[in-house]
Amino acid sequence: MPALYADRIRPGGRLDTWYQDPSLTVTDTHTGEPIPLPALTGYTATVNDTPLLLDVPAAINAARGALHPDGQWTSAITQGDPTEPNIAASAAGACWLDFEHAGRNTLAGEIANLLWYLLALGGWLVPTYQRDVYHRTLPLHLPPAATPTIEHTELSSRHRRLDLHHTWPTGPGRHTALTRLLDRITTDLGDAAGLPRGRQLHALRSFLTLRILGVIPPHLLNSSDLLLLVAKLAQAQHLTDPTPFTHTDPLSDLATVENP
After folding, report:
1. Given phi > 0 = left and psi -120 to 50 = alpha, else beta, which region is 230?
2. Helices and strands of the chain, counted as H and E runs
3. Rounded Cα gap, residues 199 and 190, in angstroms
4. Which of 19, 79, 85, 176 could anchor a disulfide with 137, C-beta 3.0 to 4.6 Å?
5. Number of C-beta neighbours around residue 94 at 10 A
6. Which region among 7-21, 132-146, 183-197 has the lowest average model confidence (pLDDT)?
7. Which of 124, 175, 164, 180 is CA-nearest to residue 147?
């Protein structure tokens, strides 16, 4: 699917343009000085007590290699970009609203799209950073109530290290959908997509990389949110144990929000 994957991953395309930009920075918590995001390559990261390696260029190159034009993936006629604004209910069942991307698509890509949408895009990134899209496509566009929160961060350019603790709250409806999706990835849906048993999420890694990095322009993100995104990318490169990537926290207090 050129618009969702090929155009973004090609050399000199969206991901290279966005993430090789030297003006894209995060803040050293010891000195207050900006650190160019590409300089984090090779930093040792500990995210919620799990050691990871930060390497955005390597993740992009791995995705580019896995999703090369001659690759073969199981496909089907699908929605094309399964998100809440693009799916509606009718008496006849679900109907497609995305006329740009609906058609024959890779099942692995569709699964990765929906997974990242449930984890981050739908409840956090789109309503926060794409408010015009959020307001235009959802009649009931409430302010986000479940957004990731950094509880502790220590970023040191001297020690080339990031220590990050965060919570990743999810509301009950999205949590139910996420739980069901993860269950079906390991059963019938994963089988239909041709994902290897026991390594289903690992097989989605390249598609997840494109969704994590290729939707919201990183220069729009504040420093904390950019670190959260990079942390999720690092987790997505280690999906032999998917728990850190897919873990969410219950939303303890759902605030009552008036419809604007």
Report:
1. alpha
2. 12, 12
3. 10
4. 85
5. 11
6. 132-146
7. 124
More confident residue, 81 or 240: 240
Query: Is residue 223 within 8 Å of 27, Cβ to Cβ?
Result: yes
Structure tokens at 60: 């992009």
User: Given a cut of 90, is residue 116 above it in pLDDT?
Assistant: yes
Q: Among 161, 165, 158, which residue's Cα sits nearest to residue 44?
A: 161
Q: Give the predicted TM-score (pTM) of the model.
A: 0.90
What residues does 46 pair with on adjacent strands?
Answer: 51, 163
Which residues are CB-contacts of 44 (< 8 A; sequence separation ≥ 6)? 51, 53, 54, 160, 161, 162
Q: What pLDDT does residue 13 have?
A: 92
Q: How far apart are CA 224 and CA 41, in angstroms?
A: 18
- What's the CA dihedral at 68, 81, 248, 223 to 10 degrees? 70
Question: How far apart (Å, rounded) are the C-alpha atoms in residues 218 and 167?
Answer: 21
Q: Give the pLDDT confidence of 239-258 residue by residue, as tens digits.
A: 888 999 999 998 865 444 44
In this structure, is the dihedral angle defined by the CA atoms of residues 13, 161, 203 and 182, taken in order, positive or negative?
A: negative
- Residue 51 identity (one-letter amino acid): P
Task: Give the bridge partners for 253, in sequence order.
Answer: none
Q: What is the pLDDT of residue 183?
A: 97
